[in-house]
Structure formats: C-alpha cells, structure tokens
Amino acid sequence: MGLEAAHADGARAAPARRSGTRQQIIDAAVALIANRGFSATSVDDIAAAAGVAKGSIFYIFGSKTDMFEQILSEGVRRLTDDLRAAGAGLTGASALAALVTELLRNVHEHPAFAKLMTAEVFRTGRHWQDSIRLVRDESMAVFADVVHEARPDLDAALVGAAVFGATLVTGLEWLAFQPERTFDEVRAAILATTHGLLPG
Amino acid sequence: MGLEAAHADGARAAPARRSGTRQQIIDAAVALIANRGFSATSVDDIAAAAGVAKGSIFYIFGSKTDMFEQILSEGVRRLTDDLRAAGAGLTGASALAALVTELLRNVHEHPAFAKLMTAEVFRTGRHWQDSIRLVRDESMAVFADVVHEARPDLDAALVGAAVFGATLVTGLEWLAFQPERTFDEVRAAILATTHGLLPG
Questions:
Q1: Any idea where the HTH tetR-type domain is (chains A, B) (predicted)?
Q2: B125 and A36: CB-CB below 8 Å?
Q3: CATH number of the domain at B68-193, out of 1.10.357.10, 3.40.50.150, 1.10.10.10, 3.40.140.10?
C-alpha cells in the first residue's frame, strides 16, 4: 500500500505539516469524488480545493488511483475500528443496536465518505477492488459475528449485510432527502426495522 | 424528458428497428457505467459496445447526460411498477415480503442497473439529480405505504428506506461477493432481518 512508507517519510521530514497536508488532500478528494465520481475529478481539481500544489498529491500518494485506494481502505478500516469499539463487551440485541448507532454516527459525521463507499464498494472492474475487498469484509464481519453468536440458525453473513445495508441506506436517505429528521428518529426507525432479529 | 417525443418519432419512422437500437444502447451504457462510472464512459465506448454508430446515440437521446437521465428515470420507474404489481392486494407482512422478493428479483435480473442506481441516487451536484428525485420518491413510497398502513406508529418513510436498503445492499452483496448463495437463501436472510416489523 505504501501508506506506512508515506507515514515514515512524513515523520522524518515535517510530521505536523505533512500530516495536515495529507488530511487536507483526503478531505478535498472525498468531497469532490463523492459528488462527481472518481473519473470526473482531476488531480488539478483536488489540488485547488485542498489549497496545495499538485506535486504534493503525487509526492504523498503516488498517483490518483493510489490516493483513492488509500482513502477507501483507510476510511473503511476506521469504520471497522469504530464498530468494534462500539460493540465491545456487548452481545445480542444490545450489540446490534450499538453497531447500528455507530454506523449511523459514522455516516452522519462523514457523509461524503459514506456516499463514496456506497458507490464504489459494489463496482467490479476497478483497479482498487481487490485492495478494498479485505477491509470491506472485516467491516461486514463485525455485524455478522454479532448475528452468528446470538442466532446461529441464521445465515450470519447475509443477515449482517442486511442490517449494514438498512443502516447505510437509511442514513444516506436521511442526509440527502430528509435532513429535517433527528439522529434519534433515524436510529429508532432502523432499530424498529431489525427489532425482531436478535434476542436480548 | 423528451422520452415521449423520442417514442413518437420512432413509431413514425421504423418502430421495431428503432426500439431495438435504443435498447442495445441502454444495455451497453448501463453495463459500462455500472463498472466504470458515468464520466469514465465515453459515447464512443457505448457506441462500440452497442454495435451502433455514435450518431445514433445523439439522434435517439440528445446527449450523453440526457441518455443517462432517461436510463435512470426509466429504470427506477420500471422498478416502481414491478413493486406496485407485486404488492397489489396485500397488506402487512405479506405485502412487505412481496416487495422484498420483487426488489431482490429486480437486483438479480438487472445487477448493473442496481449498482448504477445505488451509486447515483445519493449523489448531489449531478445534472440529473432533480429529474430522478421524483421517480426515486415513488419507488421508496411503495415500501413506506405498506409500513404506514400496518404500523402507523412508525416513521414510515424512514422504515421503508431501511427495508429498501436492507434488500438492495444484501442483493448487491450476494451478486458481487457471495454468488454461491441461492435466491431463496438471500430472500430468507432479508426477511429474517425484518421479521419483527409488521404483523400479519
């Protein structure tokens, strides 16, 4: 991935400034790509929106495709970490409610990334598909594990995907089309939908 | 939309051939755009894949953007019609099961369109956003109406979106990552997830 190498370089050179620039580029790229798509967003656009020189993007990320691959992988990995932390020590319906709440919080906090992830994660024929497959699987597995533990009679991988999908799509629907709803209303609607699934 | 006009033209000129060409272009465009995205797909690519002259695409659809707008609107309208037909005369849990089954069948039958719809429907800043908003709302409303009738205590619009999302994402997950599962297994997993939602 070259990410660790990039971090190590940054630490040797100018850690705070480097990490600030990197995050500025990521934020600008996610916002632009979420609305226009990957191909319609040029490195020039990203550099202008981030307020950095175009050369910085190539220096930090390698290429536009490498940059996007790193953004997707890191974002999904952050989501997985957040989900694991939210569900730690819980089982059954309480665990599932904690995961739904945390995924919804993530969509609310990073709406552009959530759109981009939704748009890209089912595409085939993309350069980066294999590299995000692994982190994607880990994220889905957090839901599947909770289902499997409480209801071994169910197909945990598919049911986990269903709860993930219910939360993701309802969160995006909320932000794009029903912004007058509150976080708690949206959360309650998702939990009502999956109410009969797990005991506890 | 210009669609009715295009159909009328076709009927006057060479109905069978025209409608065959139009569908070839749509099928090619959906397949390419679903995997590469809208901007990365050129009219030349679409013409080559459809085996038609580039001029036919402009003659039939006007522009690349108009073409995509028509594809999205028509596809979502077809889905809405299928959902309404599937739920006709049913209420409560039976109606919801019929809608889930029909949406899953649609995803299975038109996987490229399902990917493309998922990728595009939450984007903002696209030219065609307003035009697909209406048909999108109609599609979501089929689910919301069933929820509202059986459970007026719930936020039907959000719960409808949750069931829609659970079905769409599980269907895409199935086709992209777990193709060894059967239709009935996937359907059963979604229905288990929403099992406690509606009586009947």
A1: 19-79
A2: yes
A3: 1.10.357.10
Helix (H) or strand (E) holding B15: helix B15-36
Q: Tell me how far apart the alpha carbons of residues A79 and B67 are, in angstroms, rounded to a whole number.
A: 36
Q: In the predicted model, is pLDDT for residue A9 greater than 90?
A: no
Q: Give A13 or A200, the one with higher predicted confidence.
A: A200
Contact A116, A30 (CB under 8 A): yes
pLDDT at B4 over 60: no
Same fold, A3-62 and A67-193: no
Six-digit token pair at A192?
């009502």
Q: With CB atoms and an 8 Å threshold, state whether A197 touches B197.
A: no
B26 Cα to chain A: minimum distance (Å): 18
**Residue B176 forms contact with A (CB below 8 Å):** yes
Which chain B residues contact residue A197 at CB under 8 A?
192-193, 195-196
DSSP B1: -
CA-based nearest residue in chain B for residue A130: B177
Q: Which fold has domain A3-62?
A: Arc Repressor Mutant, subunit A (1.10.10)
Mean pLDDT across the stretch A129-150? 89
CATH number, domain A67-193: 1.10.357.10
CA-to-CA distance for A122 and B116, rounded, in angstroms?
Answer: 9
Which pLDDT tens digit goes with each residue over B31-47?
A: 999 888 888 899 999 99
Is B165–A168 a contact, with Cβ atoms under 8 angstroms apart?
yes
Q: Which has more pLDDT, B136 or B99?
A: B99
Q: Which of residues 81-140 of A touch B (CB under 8 A)?
A: 115, 118-120, 122-126, 133, 137, 140
Average confidence (pLDDT) over B141-148:
97
Residue spans of the domains in chain A: they are 3-62, 67-193
Task: List the single range of A110-114, A155-159, A173-177, B9-13 with lowest mean pLDDT.
Answer: B9-13
Candidates B132, B158, B164: best to mutate against A (most CBs of A within 10 A) is B158
Provide the pLDDT confidence category of residue A40 given band limits of 50, 70 and 90: confident
Separation of alpha carbons B117 and B72, rounded Å: 7
